[in-house]
Amino acid sequence: MASGTTPWSQQSAGRWLAECGDVDVTGTAQHEAWQRKALPPVERLRPDLWSIPVPMGGPLRYVSVYAFALDGGGLGLIDTGWESDEGWTALTDGLASIGGGVEDVRGVLVTHLHFDHLGLAHRVREASGAWMAMHPADARLVAGWNRRDGAAAVAEEVEFLISLGAGRDDAVADVGTAENFERFLRMAVPDRLLEHGDVAELPGWSLRAVHTPGHTPGHLCFAEERTGLFFSGDHVLPRISPNISSSASGTPDPLKDYLGSLATVRGTDPVEVLPAHEWRFRDLDSRVDELTAHHEHRLDELEAAVRAHPGSTPWELAAYLTWSRPWEQYERRMRIFAVTETDAHVRLLAGRGRIVSSGGAVATWTLAAR
Ligand SMILES: [Zn+2]
Predict the structure, then answer these.
(1) How far is the CA of 362 from the centre of ligand 1 (A)?
(2) What is the distance in A from the centroid of ligand 1 to the CA of 112?
(3) What angle do CA 141, 142, 145 make, to 5 degrees?
(4) Whole-number mean pLDDT of the chain?
(5) Among residues 311, 305, 66, which one has the least CA distance to residue 297?
(6) pLDDT tens-digit readout, 36-64
(7) Ligand 1 center to residue 54 CA distance, Å?
(8) What is the pLDDT of residues 347-368, one digit of tens each?
(9) How far does residue 79's CA lie from ligand 1's centre (Å)?
């Protein structure tokens, strides 16, 4: 199933990808494979650290699972991959190719609750008995989803889109069926929590959790303090900008959170950045600066749209912004991403006092008086 039609994904809605050609690529085998549209190889990155690509549908193609050999035996993982039989085979074959097996896994760190990171965790736990750790903000959401049925989740998202200005028919059509939603609600609930600054219990390693909300409320990066490696999850990727969207269950100002989280990791000067998608790279700060500039540019573009079309809803404003393809072609999940990303920018612009809301159940937006 393509990620463009599924509820939880990671790539922004397709325009202004903040693409850049000048990051210092260290994952050259990953980058070469990308250009050939092939899956990259399993790679040994350090004597006791490997990356294992786990395939997924959609434009990102794979998630990189990181496997650590632990002092005293066994393996630790960062992330698990998109839930599918193909993904499971890639993960278990990958572990076999490094001389291990899924039954050797002792602990799993999950960067965030999206299906390409958490999806396979329940199979890993079943096969190994490993503990699984996340930030409490994402853990709470996953636990809540586990108790819900698909129809309730669909109804909540439909009402949320209506509150952003969608017509009911458009909202219902875009959100899709409860059956499609259901599998994304049934993910493994973590049995350990990691707060900002906590060091994960993986013997031989010193992986410190760095809370980086924005892409999700509980997104974690991991700074490895002995090697100077930085595992960035989806927070900082070398080519695309991660999806930053408002949602019914999210925080009030996710883009403010995200920009703050970019500032959190700036200046930490890691030896190398190991992201969950695309390829490894160096010079975290310059990529952080590009992503920050990209959102500031987008905020300016949105303010101009509000000036030209005062009294618009986020649903309407999305149509006035520039996208990578004609707006009329956006539908279903892609349109939801576009509108909720627009709304994330609306909320930050309002927070900065540049636009004001009409209030009410379906707010419209106008430039603030200066
Ligand atoms: Zn992802």
Answers:
(1) 31
(2) 8
(3) 85
(4) 93
(5) 305
(6) 999 999 999 999 999 999 999 888 999 99
(7) 11
(8) 999 999 999 999 999 999 999 9
(9) 9
